[in-house]
TrEMBL record:
<dbReference type="InterPro" id="IPR012001">
    <property type="entry name" value="Thiamin_PyroP_enz_TPP-bd_dom"/>
</dbReference>
<dbReference type="InterPro" id="IPR000399">
    <property type="entry name" value="TPP-bd_CS"/>
</dbReference>
<comment type="function">
    <text>Decarboxylates branched-chain and aromatic alpha-keto acids to aldehydes.</text>
</comment>
<dbReference type="InterPro" id="IPR029035">
    <property type="entry name" value="DHS-like_NAD/FAD-binding_dom"/>
</dbReference>
<dbReference type="Pfam" id="PF02775">
    <property type="entry name" value="TPP_enzyme_C"/>
</dbReference>
<comment type="similarity">
    <text>Belongs to the TPP enzyme family.</text>
</comment>
<keyword id="KW-0210">Decarboxylase</keyword>
<dbReference type="InterPro" id="IPR047214">
    <property type="entry name" value="TPP_PDC_IPDC"/>
</dbReference>
<dbReference type="InterPro" id="IPR012110">
    <property type="entry name" value="PDC/IPDC-like"/>
</dbReference>
<keyword id="KW-0460">Magnesium</keyword>
<dbReference type="InterPro" id="IPR011766">
    <property type="entry name" value="TPP_enzyme_TPP-bd"/>
</dbReference>
<dbReference type="InterPro" id="IPR047213">
    <property type="entry name" value="TPP_PYR_PDC_IPDC-like"/>
</dbReference>
<keyword id="KW-0786">Thiamine pyrophosphate</keyword>
<feature type="domain" description="Thiamine pyrophosphate enzyme TPP-binding">
    <location>
        <begin position="395"/>
        <end position="538"/>
    </location>
</feature>
<keyword id="KW-0456">Lyase</keyword>
<protein>
    <recommendedName>
        <fullName>Alpha-keto-acid decarboxylase</fullName>
    </recommendedName>
</protein>
<dbReference type="InterPro" id="IPR012000">
    <property type="entry name" value="Thiamin_PyroP_enz_cen_dom"/>
</dbReference>
Length: 577
């Protein structure tokens, strides 16, 4: 964007040009005095739009949702008070492998050199404290000066793309407006590193393991989504007749209407037919699969000696690692050598049909019927965003239409993620419909971003499951035999009235459903893209839990970990590594 011959640009313009080359088209953030010089440049920069956020926390979550749809995101905050609020979201992006560039407007260089006591600090002159903190939740960091700007920007952005994780760039106010030479070339995304000898060695080892395999299967996590490998995975499955299971992290990569898709695998919590296929595979090819306590680490009966595990930059065959080998290159070799599977798999492995809602019933809405009703609302190409807790486990029961993009963050499990992430996804893909499912606990953390949805004329469908508190904590208490404590309850808001706080009358539709018949009537009027933001509050019994949550709670309790799972069933404590 700013590459060319001769002349000069400011460091801020240089950074914006490099961000544009990386693929950033929108920047989320909150203004502040330390960042205003750089934000002023964003406002006049052709090709990147400023998207103001209601808080730095929300800005980080919006950048995360944006990046999961657009490929990369960016957030701008200011030194100290602003950047710290964003670090929670950056930690989630670090855990979930989401590439975000966090740009922090910092104090002038001389102010920092003189260790001046300034506002938004601890008044001790230590301006490097926040970068030290950022090192824990980003893979590369830089504090720019005019002398190092081009080299450091390119280094950090290359790491962001290569590692598909967040990075941190501090741009002091005087540096943002300092002139530097115009770069002669545009920034280009680095290609994956592949050492041919290691790729050949991997292929030979994989060939030996696959020899004679009659029941191979695929298990996919989130990294193939980030790396754009959906078509390659589908081609292997279709041409070689291999079944595909996903982790919750990997939903959205595979067309769930494809007959090769068998469902979600998460150890002992999986449907029996899914476990039969995955755990019964004589060779299991894992693509970016991440095992942790919530998704079967302690109960997955998987023999590492029968696993081919493709990582972002390495491939592991029966415990032997070959690197550097990109996931795309390793997958391509596997496709070439893989034999066709002649053994079928149980048709029952397909996700079971959910109990349908009774359109005439005046009974309260039950979790077991709620999710079939939500599933019927979804359309091909939707973006589905689900909150941790009730919404996450409910969404796991649904069969998704073709082309659905799924935004969920189970590893970091950041409550309040969904509403700002849905806003970010809507900015990234304004022509697609966003369906957001949150709970009363989640929406109480970040409802403000609904106001930003109105500013940008977004028309999402927002489900708010109101069960009067924190279901996950209630399930944990029940799992260890404790009585429900008062801290699991939260004040009951009038959730259907939230849009009225942020928007003029007539620019939204809000409903409250207490019975199955009421919910059915509301959803009958929701078909395709709506012309207004639609919020549907669904009231359910506080003691009613979605399928999967009670089983999860039995693993998520530290007490039960040690009582029932003194060690993982088969995998190492660190998962596949």
């Amino acid at each position: 964007m700013v590459g060319g011959s001769g002349g000069s640009v400011t460091v801020g313009e240089l950074l914006l040009g490099r961000l544009h080359d990386l693929g950033v088209r929108h920047v989320f953030g909150v203004p502040g005095d330390y960042a205003m010089d750089f934000i002023d440049q964003i406002m006049t920069f052709d090709g990147i739009d400023w998207i103001g956020s209601s808080s730095e926390f929300n800005a980080g979550c919006s950048a995360d949702g944006y990046a999961r749809v657009a490929g990369v995101g960016a957030v701008v905050t200011q030194f100290g008070v602003g950047e710290l609020s964003t670090m929670n979201a950056l930690a989630g992006a670090m855990a979930e492998s989401v590439p975000i560039v966090s740009v922090v407007g910092g104090p002038m260089l001389e102010i920092m050199r003189q260790r001046t006591s300034i506002h938004h600090s601890l008044a001790d002159g230590d301006s490097e404290r926040w970068i030290r903190m950022a090192r824990e939740v980003t893979v590369a960091q830089a504090s720019l000066t005019p002398e190092c700007a081009l080299q450091e920007i390119d280094r950090v952005l290359a790491e962001c793309w290569s590692q598909q994780r967040p990075v941190y760039i501090r741009i002091p106010g005087d540096v943002a407006i300092a002139p530097v030479s115009r770069p002669s070339r545009r920034f280009t995304r680095p290609d994956p590193v592949v050492l041919p000898a290691q790729l050949d060695a991997f292929a030979a080892a994989a060939q030996r393991l696959l020899a004679g395999a009659e029941r191979p299967a695929l298990l996919v996590g989130n990294l193939p989504i980030r790396l754009g490998l959906g078509a390659a995975v589908a081609a292997l499955a279709n041409e070689r007749n291999w079944p595909i299971a996903t982790q919750m992290l990997g939903r959205g990569l595979v067309d769930e209407t494809d007959p090769h898709y068998i469902g979600i695998y998460n150890g002992a919590e999986s449907p029996a037919p899914v476990r039969e296929v995955v755990e019964g595979a004589d060779v299991l090819v894992c693509l970016g699969a991440t095992f942790f306590d919530w998704n079967g680490l302690f109960t997955a009966e998987l023999d590492p000696a029968r696993i081919i595990n493709l990582r972002r930059d390495g491939a592991v065959v029966a415990g032997t690692c070959f690197a550097p080998v990109s996931m795309a290159a390793a997958l391509d070799r596997l496709h070439e050598m893989a034999a066709s599977r002649s053994v079928g798999w149980p048709s029952a492995a397909l996700l079971h049909d959910l109990p349908e809602i009774d359109r005439a019933s005046t009974d309260p809405i039950r979790q077991e019927r709620l999710w079939s009703a939500v599933q019927d609302v979804l359309r091909p190409g939707d973006i589905l965003v689900s909150e941790v807790g009730t919404a996450f486990f409910g969404a796991a029961t649904m069969r998704l239409p073709a082309g659905t993009t799924v935004l969920a963050a189970p590893i970091w499990s950041l409550a309040g993620y969904t509403t700002p992430a849905a806003f970010g996804a809507g900015i990234a893909a304004p022509d697609r419909r966003v369906v957001s499912i949150t709970g009363d606990g989640g929406i109480q953390i970040s409802p403000q971003e609904i106001s930003r949805m109105f500013v940008f004329d977004q028309h999402p469908i927002i489900f708010v499951v109101n069960n009067g508190g924190y279901s996950s904590e209630r399930a944990l208490e029940k799992a260890v035999g404790e009585e429900t404590q008062a801290y699991t309850q939260i004040p009951n808001w009038r959730y259907s009235e939230i849009p009225a706080v942020f928007a003029p009358e007539g620019t939204f539709v809000a409903h409250v459903a207490r019975t199955e018949a009421e919910l059915a009537g509301i959803l009958a009027g929701v078909d395709g893209r709506t012309d207004r933001l639609t919020l549907i509050e669904v009231i359910v019994d506080p003691t009613d839990l979605p399928p999967g949550l009670p089983q999860w709670s039995q693993e998520a309790s530290a007490f039960i970990y040690h009582a029932q799972f003194p060690a993982p069933a088969s995998l190492p404590w660190g998962g596949l590594g």
